[in-house]
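Example complex used in Figure S2.
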Amino acid sequence: EVQLVQSGAEVKKPGESLRISCKGSGYSFATFWIGWVRQMPGKGLEWMGIMFPGDSGPIYSPSFQGQVSISADKSISTAYLQWSSLKASDTAMYYCARHWQVGGTRVIDYWGQGTLVTVSS
Amino acid sequence: DIQMTQSPSSLSASVGDRVTITCRASQSISSYLNWYQQKPGKAPKLLIYDASSLQSGVPSRFSGSGYGTDFTLTISSLQPEDFATYYCQQSYRTPVHFGQGTKLEI
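Predicted assembly (227 residues):
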C-alpha cells in the first residue's frame, strides 16, 4: 500500500527556519516525482514544485521560487520542504504529493495527510 | 502560466441529482486535465485523470469529458458522501495550476 506520511504540525515565529518531511513507503520512492502543494486557510490548492528523487534539481512554480527549497533523500525515501525565514503568510496546510507519470503528463495520485504550519509572533 | 477557471464556485444539490461542474483552461491543454475531490480536513483524492480516465477505486457515477480548453466533471447520481469540494488541475505544463474549486453542498 502506497503511503506518504508527513511530519507533525509546527508552530513557528516569523524569521525562523523550518523543514518539514514526507516519508514514502509501499512503492519505489526513487522512481516517482514527488512534490508539494499549499492550501492556505479556507482557500484552494497551490502547486509549489516537484522533484525526481536523486536526479536533477527541483522544478518550482514561479510563485514559490526563492521562497522555499524542495529536496529529497532517496536512501530514506523522504522528501523535504524547507524555509530559511518564515513569514506569517506561510501559515497553511502543506501536502506532499506523489506524481505518477502517465503518458506525457504527471498526475498526483497519492497525497500525504498534510502538515499544518502556523507562523505567528 | 495556464490558468484554470471552474464554474460554479458553489452548488447546492440533493441526493440522487445529476451534477455537472465545468473547468476552462486559458489555453489548450490537450486532454491533460485532472479532477480531485477534497472533504473537510482531508487531503484531496484523485477522481479522474487525462480528462476522462477513472482512477482505480472511484465509483462509476463519476465521469469526465472534454478536450482542449473546456472540460466537465459529471456525477450521475449524487450520494451523501459526494458532498465535498472539487478541483480541476491542468498537468499539461509546469507550473501546474488548479481551479479555484467548486463546493458541492446539500
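The radius of gyration of chain B is 13 Å. The mean pLDDT of chain B is 96.
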